[in-house]
Amino acid sequence: MKNVMYRSATSSDLPGAAQVFIRARNEMLTRVGSNAPPDSPESAVAGFQHVLDTGIFEVAELDGRIVGKASAIVRDGLWFLSGFWVEPAFKNQGIGGPLLRRAWQRGQELGAATFFVWASSDTTAMATYMKFGMLPGSQILTFRGEPERLRLPETPVGYETQPLDPGDASRIDSVVRGTRREVDHRYWADLPGRIVVRGGKLCGYYYLSDGQLFGGWLDPADGEAVLALGARHGLEHANQSMLRVPGMNHLAIRFALDHGYRLQQFSHLLTTGPFGKPDQYVTSGPLLF
C-alpha cells in the first residue's frame, strides 16, 4: 500500500501497537471460533516494552496511525516472532509482508540461525510464515483445569522446592529452551517461581502467572514431579491451572489429561529447524515462548 511508512518502534508507539494487536487478535479469535480470554492494553504494553528493550519491534504507520506491528526476540541465535498483527481494516493490502521481512532481516543481522513462531489457525498468516521457511513443527495445546475438576497427584517423594535462582533456571533453559535467556528471567522476577531439586540435584524449575504454569526439566523422569509441584503451588495463587504444551511433550499432555484438565484450544509451532528439548518444556506463551 502506498504511503505506508515502516520503521523501528519507540516506547511512545506501544499503546497504538497494543490497540492493533487487541483488535486484530479479537477479529481472528471470532473468525476461528475461539473463546480464548481477551488481553488488556496494559498487559500488552508491558510485554511489548520488554520486547522493545531486548529484541526487535517494527511498526507500519499510515497517516500518523500505527496499523501493523511485527516484533521478535533473538536469544543465542534463536529468533522467535513474538507478535505479528495488522489492523483488520488494512489486512490483505500488502502491509504485512514488508513488515515481517524487516523483523526477519533484523534477526539475521543479529545472528539468528533458527526462526520460529507461535501461529494461530489463521491460514493466511500460516501461509505467510511457511513462505518464509517456517514449517510445521507441532501443535501447541492449551489445557485449563478448575480446582473442582483437578485430581492432582500427591507431592512426589524425595522432591522439594527452593527459591527460584535465575542462574539455575538459565542452566535448565540452555538445555530445554536452547538458550539461557537471562533477560527473560529478569522480566519474570516478580512472578511466583521455584527450583525443583531431588537429593540436592537440580531437576527443573517453574513459574506461575495468573494460573498458568510454565517451566522445564532436565530429565524426563523428573517431569511429572515438576508439573505436580507447580500445579499444586499454582492453585494457591489462582482459581484455575493452565498449561501450554508443545505437541511433542507427551509427558505434559498425559499429565493434563490424566488429572482433570480440559483441552481448550490449539495453536501451531512453525520453525525453520529444531531447537532445545521442547518435549521437556511447558511454554510461557506467545510473547516469549
Largest beta-sheet details: 13 strands, mixed
Could you tell me the radius of gyration in angstroms?
19 Å
Chain oligomer state: single chain
N- and C-termini, Cα separation: 32 Å
> How many strands appear in the DSSP assignment?
13
Number of domain modules: 2
Helix content: 25-40%
Would you identify the regions where 5 or more consecutive residues have pLDDT less than 50? none
The number of helical segments is 8
Shape: globular
Mean pLDDT: 94
CATH fold type of the largest domain: Aminopeptidase
Structural account:
By secondary structure, this protein is of the alpha+beta class. It has two domains: 4-133, Gcn5-related N-acetyltransferase (GNAT) (Aminopeptidase, 3-Layer(aba) Sandwich); 143-266 and 274-282, Aminopeptidase, CATH 3.40.630.90. The protein contains eight helices and 13 strands. Strands 1, 2, 3, 4, 5, 6, 7, 8, 9, 10, 11, 12 and 13 form a 13-stranded mixed beta sheet that branches. Strand 8 (193-198) and strand 9 form a beta hairpin.
